[in-house]
Specification:
Elements lengths: L2 E6 L4 H12 L3 E6 L2 H15 L3 E5 L8 H10 L3 E7 L14 H29 L2 E6 L12 H20 L5 E7 L7 H5 L2 H6 L5 H13 L4 E3 L2 H9 L5 H12 L5
Parallel strand pairs: 1-2, 1-4, 2-3, 4-5, 5-6, 6-7
């Protein structure tokens, strides 16, 4: 089998857990990450454990100049990309007035523009062979405005909306877009986002569990999957409350004494 799963952020956290699940099924891997050391370790582990081929590319995907290099590499290696997994992303919890604007712009590039670019880059290949699946990792944050974490919530809302729209456009083909929206889960996200308050209030689930549920949703061609009963309930209940109520509730969830 010469099929490949392209996974951004694939050398650590949720990305490496997804990589292991693909590898268990004999699917080769093309991992992209900004950390070359993590990529080297992931390649060695996955090839030894699962006997699949692992291609790696060290790129900072928060810089848009690097977006075209993802496809350039897969083309140069003649990789048959069957799965595109947009997993790379980060957050930052700060009052808007204190935010580093350059960091916020990098977040938008990585969380929004990179997935959009890669979907556009590969979708015609998928359509030409009438086979392929895009798996986008969004967040429970996609459904709610996020005071004190405003850019992250907005970026995940963008990803959810564009993913649902593209999936609908692909109706009638054998190409699908699945968007997964987990709540807090164990990864390096919390340290980088500085949002340990949220993790203290909400016990995170494992990245492995998120990966397992994500794979099942993808195989069932689900458009959107919210992970966790309480999270599903929160999304369902949100339609019955005013936007003002939701933004105030979100503020209290994201920051102690949020006001």
């Amino acid at each position: 089998m010469n099929k490949y799963a392209l996974i951004t952020g694939g050398a650590s956290g949720l990305g490496i857990e997804l990589a292991k699940l693909f590898a268990k099924e004999g699917i080769n891997l093309y991992l992209v990450s900004s950390n070359p050391n993590n990529l080297k370790a992931a390649k060695e582990e996955l090839e030894k454990e699962y006997k699949v081929n692992v291609e790696t590319l060290a790129l900072d995907l928060s810089n848009p100049v690097n977006f075209p290099k993802v496809r350039e590499y897969s083309t140069s290696k003649n990789l048959d990309i069957e799965y595109l997994v947009n997993c790379a992303g980060f957050g930052d919890q700060k009052d808007f007035k204190d935010m580093d604007i350059n960091l916020q712009l990098k977040m938008i590039e990585l969380n929004c523009n990179c997935p959009m670019y890669l979907m556009r880059d590969y979708v015609n290949d998928f359509l030409a062979k009438n086979s392929g699946h895009i798996l986008n990792i969004a967040s429970l944050a996609s459904f709610f405005p996020g005071p004190f974490m405003s850019t992250y919530h907005a970026s995940k809302a963008f990803l959810l909306n564009i993913s649902e729209a593209i999936n609908r456009e692909l109706k009638g083909t054998n190409v699908h877009v699945t968007t997964v929206c987990p709540g807090p889960f164990t990864s390096g996200f919390v340290a980088r986002a500085h949002n340990d308050y949220v993790f203290k209030k909400n016990k995170p689930i494992s990245a492995y569990k998120v990966a397992t549920i994500s794979m099942k949703a993808m195989k069932k061609n689900k458009a959107v999957t919210v992970i966790g009963f309480k999270n599903k309930l929160a999304v369902f209940a949100s339609r019955f409350f005013s936007r003002n109520f939701l933004v105030n509730t979100s503020a209290k969830t994201l920051k102690e004494h949020g006001k």
